[in-house]
Amino acid sequence: EIVLTQSPATLSLSPGERATLSCRASQSVSSSLMWYQQKPGQAPRLLIYDASIRATGIPARFSGSGSGTDFTLTISSLEPEDFAVYYCQHRSNWPLTFGGGTKVEIK
Amino acid sequence: QVQLVESGGGVVQPGRSLRLSCAASGFSFTGYGFHWVRQAPGKGLEWVAVIWYDGSNKFYADSVKGRFTISRDNSKNTVYLEMNNLRADDTSVYYCTRDIAVGVFDWWGQGALVTVSS
């Protein structure tokens, strides 16, 4: 099973600041890495798939990069609605697994 | 518009069974695979199971293999998760998700809470 490790666990930032979230895989997942956003009481929402492709309707301030074992989700300028928990997930093989999440909170 | 609506959650005793349903609408059901993903209270996400668009393939997480069964009824646009021999650590919100590219979850239901407790 591929283990995904997200860091940091919590990121405290102010609106307008840049957020950089990391996801590291225990073995190569090529570009088969997704990012989801989850707000309290809501289902997760797909942001990025296959490392760098924005899902339909996702604003351009969200971008993904990386391949192999190291991946980054960048939010270029935080909006108030971006404070949430972010999860990475791979689809390289079975079983699919998620990272433990990074909470982006208001500083 | 795309909708996935889970039902069938509730409180169940350890060792008992429960069946979740996921009713899909707003798109061509037979063109998509579906997954179940769960989230224990206050915890992260855990993938549970997948069924191919035509039902030809199914995969399960080790934690539920042999106890849970995923199925679909294309005549009813519904996906099911039959859960047997439930344990306390199965307590979670169970989400039904649509698959757009084998492991990419582009649409999620609102979730169904399953609580396993005596």
Descriptive labels:
heterodimer, A: 107 residues, mainly beta, six-stranded mixed beta sheet, four-stranded antiparallel beta sheet, B: 118 residues
Please give the structural blueprint.
The complex is a heterodimer of chains A (107) and B (118).
Chain A: E1 4-7, E2 10-13, E3 19-25, E4 33-38, E5 45-49, E6 53-54, E7 62-67, E8 70-75, E9 85-90, E10 102-106
Parallel strand pairs in A: 2-10
Antiparallel strand pairs in A: 1-3, 3-8, 4-5, 4-9, 5-6, 7-8, 9-10
Chain B: E1 3-7, E2 10-12, E3 18-25, E4 33-39, E5 45-51, E6 58-60, E7 68-73, E8 78-83, E9 92-99, E10 105-108, E11 112-116
Parallel strand pairs in B: 2-11
Antiparallel strand pairs in B: 1-3, 3-8, 4-5, 4-9, 5-6, 7-8, 9-10, 9-11
Task: Walk me through what this model shows.
The complex is a heterodimer of chains A (about 110) and B (about 120). Chain A is an all-beta fold and about 110 residues long. Chain A contains no helices and ten strands. Chain A has strands at about 5, 10-15, 20-25, 35-40, 45-50, 55, 60-65, 70-75, 85-90, 100-105. A six-stranded mixed beta sheet of chain A has the order 2-10-9-4-5-6, with no helix packed on it. In chain A, strand 7 and strand 8 (about 70-75) form a beta hairpin. Chain A is globular. The termini of chain A are far apart. By secondary structure, chain B is mainly β. In chain B, strand 4 (about 35-40) and strand 5 form a beta hairpin. The interface of A and B includes residues 44, 87, 89 and 99 of A.
What is the gist of this entry?
The complex is a heterodimer of chains A (107) and B (118). With 107 residues, chain A is mainly β. Chain A has strands spanning 4-7, 10-13, 19-25, 33-38, 45-49, 53-54, 62-67, 70-75, 85-90, 102-106.
Low-confidence stretches of chain B: none
Shape of chain A: globular
How large, in whole angstroms, is the Cα Rg of chain B? 13 Å
**Number of strand segments of chain B:** 11
Low-confidence stretches of chain A: none
The number of distinct helices of chain A, counting runs of at least 4 residues, comes to 0
Major interchain interface with per-chain residue totals: A-B, 25 and 21 residues
Radius of gyration of chain A: 13 Å
